[in-house]
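Q: Protein A?
A:
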Amino acid sequence: MDKTKAVRAEVIRRLLAVSAVFLLGAGAAHACSANLTQAQVDQANQLLDQNRSKDAFALMYPLSKQGSGGANRFLSEMYEKGRGVKQSSFMKRHLNWMGAQDSDPAAMYRTAVDFFERGHRKDGEYWAKRAIECGSSEALVMLAERYIDGGRIEEARPLIENGLDKSIPRIKFIVAEQYEKGGMGLEINPHLAYTWYYLAAKDGVAEAMTAIGYFFAQGIHGVQDDVAAVEWYHRASQAGDIKAITAYAWMVENGKGTQPDPENARRLYAVAASKGDVNAAAFMSKLAKSK
C-alpha cells in the first residue's frame, strides 16, 4: 500500500472508530465474530425441525444475553419467519441490531439492509462498511451496487477492485453489466461483457447464465447460436432465474434450438408466472388463444 492510500485508510479507520464509540461503545469498532459455534447452530436448527421451538429459543436466548451476535441473529431469523414465535418485523430488526452491536458480521449486513429499506442511507452505509471490514461479501456487493446506481462511481471502484481480488461471483456479474451498458466510464464492449458474464456464470450466478443465453440468442458478441442459447437458458432456469424460465419456455414453444413442445412451454410459463413474471403470464395467455 502506498503512502497516500495508507493515510486515507487511517483516516477512514479513525472516522469509523469515532462513529463506533457513539454507536457501539469504545473498543468494539473492529471486532468481527459471531461468537457462536456451528454445533450450537446445528442443535438449534435440529430443535426447530423437531417442532421444539421453545427449546431452540431457550438455547439461543442465554447466549444472546452473554453477547453472542450470532445468537441474536438466529433469534432474529426466528421472528422473521415466525418459527416458534410470533412473526415480528420489529423484533427481526431489533435483534439484527443487537447482533451487529455484538460484532456478528452477518447481523451487520442485515442491519445495513434494514436501514436502507427504511430510508436511512447513512446508517445503512455505516453498517455495510462495518460488515465489509469483517469480510462480508454480501455487504460489499450491496454497497457497490448502491454506489453505481447512485452515480457514485469513484466510491464504487475500490469496492469492485476488492471484490475482484476476492473473486466474488456477483462482482464479476457487475463488471459484465458495466461493459455491456458502458457504465462506470467504460466503453461498451460486448466481447468483454460476454467474458465476464461467462466467468460469473461458471461461478453459479444464474443471471449471468441468462445473459449468456441472451447474447447467443441475439448474436450480441458476434455469435448467434440458438442451440447454445437454449442450453444456457435451461441452465439458468434450473439455477432459479425466473426470466430464464420464461426465455427457455419461449425457445421451447417456438422450436428455437430445440424441438417445439407447446405443452412443455405452457408448463414452464405457468411456473414463471406463479413466481411473478408478467411476461410469462402474457405468453401463456397468447399460447392458450392459439390452440
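Q: Protein B?
A:
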Amino acid sequence: MKKIIFGLFAISTFAFGATGNNNIYFRGEFSPFSKYKLEENNGVKEEIDEAAYALAVEVTKEISNGFETGVGIGYQWNGSFKYDANFDDTDGRLPDMHSIPIYATVKTDIPALRIGQWTPYLKGDLGFSYNDLKDTDNYSFENGFYYAFGIGLEIEELSIEVSYKTNTGKLKVKSKDSKYDVDSHRIMLGAALKFDLN
C-alpha cells in the first residue's frame, strides 16, 4: 500500500511539469451517515451512524483534456464516537476521531455524458490519515490510510459531488495496553470551487 501511495504522489509531482492548466480546489463536504467500526479479536464491537464534515484544498494539473492529477490536504471530523461501557471514558464517551488526510487525487471527465457546460466526472483519492489529534489520558488514535472515490458534476467553476470515504487507524487503550482497529466510513455530499492558477 505504501508503494502505491508513493507512486501516486510521484505521478502527481511529475504531472506538474507537463503542459496544461494548474487548478486549485476549495472543497467542503457533509454527511449525516458517518459510520465507525471498532474491531476486537476480529469481531465487530459496535457500529454507530453519526454526522460528519470535512474541508479540503487540492492543487491539480490538467495533463490531458479532461484529466487532472494532483495532491490535497484536508481536515475531517468523523462524528461523535460512543460505545458500550467497556470502552467508555469517565465522561461517557471516547474522544472523537479527527483526521488530517494528505493524499494524491485523480479526476477525469466523462465526455460521453457532457451536456453543454455540465460535465460529469469521476474522482479518486489515496493517501495517509493523521488521526492523533484528540487524545485523552486513557485513549489515543493512531494514524492509518485514507481513500475515497466519487462521482460529480462540474458546472464551470462549481463542482457538486457524491463520494465514499474511509479513514483507517487504531484506537489505543492505555490502561489495558491494547489496540483495536478502528475505521470511519461515510458517504459524503460535497461542493468545490475551482480557481485557475495560470
